[in-house]
Amino acid sequence: MVIEKTRDVLHRGFSPVITNQIKNQGATMFADLTRLATMRRKHKIAINRNTIDQLSYMRMKQYRTKVKIVTVLLILIITSCSSPTDYTQFVNRFIGTGGNGGIVPVAAMPFGMVQLGPDTRTCASGYHFDDKTLLGFSHIHKSGAGCSDFLDILFLPLNINAKADTVNSLSRAQFETSLSHENEDSQPGYYEVGLYDNRVNVELSATLRCGFQRYNYSETGEKSILLDLEHGSDCACTIVTEENVDTILVSSFEMVDDSTIRGSRISSGFAPEQHVYFHTTFSQPIKKCVLYVDNQKADWKNQSH
Questions:
Q1: What are the residue boundaries of the structural domains of the chain, listed by start?
Q2: Confidence of residue 29 (pLDDT cuts 50, 70, 90)
């Protein structure tokens, strides 16, 4: 279409040089050039190259301004209509949790002080995908490292009506429970698992300095929670054999009020004299608290060991 109309103008008396200029500048200037040809024929007006150059510049400037406006409007419309993509849906948090990967699907934030997640063993990172049992949920993990450390301050919600307060002697892993990956899910900053045939659903999340645990029970009854201050890493692979096992130097526990507890755990292993402190608030009041020292039931009133 542009070539045909250019030939028509050429027949009206324009030189080939001017015609080539018309081809390069496009069809947007064609109407103006046609009007100039008509004015030259009717009124015998002298039209030189400078006139066409000036007209071409003005027309191209207007055209570019319109293109910029249309482009900005398109960007604004597209931006306002489309919602941002949630890329966290593409993250597989269980990559590296098997073999020698040493990854734990913890709930954590970048550079956060809390890495709240599941423990299935007391060596390596504390979690392995092939393990069939769960020990609980500790607040500090180290993923991907060759040597083990941390696994401090472990919580475990017990099965409904577990009657844990009737136990006179309590050892590590005594209340471990079966783990099924069919009832397990993990996303960046979040972990979830169903325990005891989904009678208790556990959800974990974290901020920079705090861990959040939510226990949902499928039925009513007595609800107990185990807090294990002995639980920790057992294979630090240090050059000193006796320091391979995380050994407690001092641990403390205090019941502040009917919904708040706090305490500490000071131990030596991979890191000498590691201090970890906790302060926990429950959403429901505590009806009874039983303390075990050296695996034996003891008086719980503000006792340290």
A1: 2-81, 97-298
A2: low
- How far apart CA 102 and CA 80 sit, in angstroms, is 43
Contacts of 218 (CB under 8 A, 6+ apart): 198, 199, 200, 201
> Tens of pLDDT along 77-112?
555 556 788 888 899 999 999 999 999 999 999 999
User: Has this prediction a pTM greater than 0.85?
Assistant: no
For the cut 60, the answer to whether the pLDDT of residue 39 exceeds it is no
Q: Which one is predicted more confidently, 144 or 220?
A: 220
Whether 221 contacts 160, CB under 8 Å: yes
Tell me which of 177 and 51 has the higher pLDDT: 177
* Interatomic CA distance for residues 57 and 66, integer angstroms: 14
On whether the CB atoms of residues 124 and 96 are closer than 8 A, the answer is no
Residues 103 and 92: beta-carbon distance below 8 Å: no
Q: Which helix (H) or strand (E) holds 85?
A: none
- Of 91, 88, 87, 93, the closest CA to residue 181 belongs to 93
Q: Write the CA distances from 15 to 9, 38, 49, 116, 232, integer angstroms.
A: 10, 16, 10, 81, 92
Q: Which residue has the tokens 């009133």?
A: 301
Q: Does domain 97-298 have CATH number 2.60.40.10?
A: no
Task: Supply the pLDDT for residue 11.
Answer: 39
CA distances from 112 to 43, 88, 108, 209, 282 (A): 83, 18, 6, 6, 22
Contact, 214 vs 224, CB < 8 A?
no
Integer angstrom CA distances of residue 188 from 118, 179, 213, 295: 15, 21, 15, 36
Is the distance from CB of 129 to CB of 145 less than 8 angstroms? no
More confident residue, 66 or 146: 146
